[in-house]
Write a structure and sequence with these properties.
about 45% helix, 10 strands, five-stranded mixed beta sheet, alpha/beta
Length: about 300
């Protein structure tokens, strides 16, 4: 049975799906991350092979029957990453089909917009990726929190919420719903506890708490401070998109498409609406698009489309 494979390889999970050439779902598997930034190269190779094999076993698929493989991978950021991942996937036993490996932001762009436009991701981190009508690509953001990166992201919103909490301890901000929610979540009752928390985060950015849901909840309850944080986040994510639009000379495109991806914007009504407003103010012709399918479905659709293009 001939089929294609789509893969969404993230920093937490590895998802793989096989579909028939008519698009019908054949098999699917979800496993632990195979990111070479999270595990050793040998372990990453082992997991890639294992996860794909488990997907094939779910429907009795044979590796030699695969006609195309498309993968969006977190951490595919430079030529060295591309060489490593191409080597890993190229060594999969029994697979001789064409393969297309790309950064997960590029896959998200395809999933929301197709092969053209700009996409902003605001999840735990943030980044913008785009491609203009001439095929020129660019990316903005994605830098670490250590240099004030990930602007407008979930981690950025969390830091703003904690900064607001510090103002409360200073006596410069009142006790509002946001303060009450954060105190309950983190059991913060003294300046010393907040100082200890800040020191722990400075030493290990990866383990900071996620407070974005609390900021959204407080904003929904009318907390003006929470609303202000989310509107500032929208300003940051809009800056990522706008910088990229200008870089790729897309500002005058009549069909300019600006996609959004990630729970910190898609799942935040205040953030999303403020972002929409900023886009429309500067680029009236632009269309803001939300994801309608998952990245995994996007990867399968991409594989089917590329196979069809090959004839």
């Amino acid at each position: 049975m001939e089929y294609v494979i789509g893969i969404d390889s993230g920093g937490t999970n590895f998802r793989v799906r096989a579909a028939g050439l008519d698009g019908r779902l054949l098999g699917e598997y979800k496993g632990s991350t195979a990111s070479h930034y999270s595990v050793s190269e040998d372990k990453a190779q082992e997991r890639i092979s294992h996860h794909i094999r488990c997907c094939l076993e779910s429907f009795g698929g044979k590796s030699e029957d695969c006609r195309y493989l498309a993968c969006g991978a977190a951490g595919l950021d430079n030529e060295a990453d591309a060489a490593l991942l191409n080597r890993m996937y190229g060594s999969l036993e029994g697979f001789s089909c064409p393969m297309e490996l790309m950064n997960d932001a590029e896959l998200a762009l395809y999933t929301v917009n197709g092969d053209y436009g700009v996409l902003v991701i605001s999840g735990t981190g943030s980044i913008a990726f785009g491609r203009n009508h001439q095929g020129r690509e660019g990316r903005v953001g994605g830098w670490s929190m250590g240099i004030m990166g990930d602007e407008g992201s979930g981690s950025w919103v969390t830091r703003c919420a904690l900064a607001h909490f510090s103002r409360y301890f200073d006596g410069a901000a009142p006790e509002t719903e946001l303060i009450r929610l954060v105190r309950e979540r983190l059991n913060l009752n003294t300046r010393e506890q907040l100082a200890d928390l800040a020191a722990a985060f400075a030493a290990d950015f990866e383990n900071q708490p996620a407070l974005g849901d609390l900021v959204d909840k407080a904003a929904a309850a009318g907390d003006a401070y929470a609303v202000r944080i989310l509107e500032r986040a929208a300003g940051e994510t809009f800056s990522l998109a706008s910088d990229l639009i200008q870089m790729l000379d897309m500002q005058n495109d009549a069909d300019l498409a600006v996609g959004v991806w990630g729970s910190n914007i898609v799942g935040s009504p205040v953030h999303l609406e403020a972002f929409r407003r900023l886009v429309k103010e500067k680029y009236p012709a632009a269309t803001v698009r939300l994801p309608q399918i998952s990245a995994l479905e996007g990867a399968v659709n991409l594989a089917l489309e590329r196979l069809k293009q090959r004839g």
